[in-house]
Amino acid sequence: MGSATTQALAASASALDAAPVDLDTARELFAASRAVAGAPALSGALTDSAATAENRGALVSRAFGALSLVTRGLIAQVVSQRWSSGDDLVSGLEELAIRAAAKAEAADVEAELFQVVRIISANPQLELALGSRLGGSAKKGELIGSLLQGRASEGTTLIVSSLVQQSRGRRVRAMLNRAMRIAAAQRGRTVATVYTAAPLSPVQSERLASALSNRYGGEIALNPVIDPTVVGGIRIQVADDVIDGSISSRLADLRQRLAG
């Protein structure tokens, strides 16, 4: 990700924070992301650094005139930024849609997304069906709708169904893990996935969240996973950062040293 895209994402998130959004806004932003992804000429025009921000904004009005005023305003803010590529613009619109859904939804979206990831991880056939290029996008959306009915909020269902219908070659779990981090960031949280052999007590969870908050800053959302292979201790993953204090890890390290 280029520095221009990083700055554009931050500016887009700030624009969203100031906007009165609802789940319809999120739906329209997902639709805009799909439209831009499917039209290379439009993507190129919206990221053309030679065009003025006013000209790109006028193009937004023409291309997305059927969308709400709030959504068009957000897209205009997005395309007024400099993006490193057309693909980055598509990802930026998608991220804004995820943030809008998380902002509009009262439920704990990142926790629900985590549970969806767990369901898909436990069902390889489901993951294959959702990730296959052979199935139609509408059918995948219907599958997610039936799967999550009564299990997840409308906002979470919107995010998952939208992503599986526009995978752009990405793995399903990777997409949903990214969405989980974005939803958490929208609410000022950092996601920590915690692997233990036995469930943590409420006191242990509170102490761990406090320790991780001191280390990473801000509020921590714990996603617990029971994993018998941990043997003892604990393994924690925060984005790409892994803290492994499990006995199994220490035994593996010892075996490597003996073998070496």
Automatic annotation (TrEMBL):
It comes from the Bacteria. Its main location: membrane. The keyword tRNA-binding does not apply. It is a peripheral membrane protein. Keywords: ATP synthesis, Cell membrane, CF(1), Hydrogen ion transport, Ion transport, Membrane, Transport. The keyword Methyltransferase does not apply. This protein is part of the stalk that links CF(0) to CF(1). It either transmits conformational changes from CF(0) to CF(1) or is implicated in proton conduction. This is ATP synthase subunit delta.
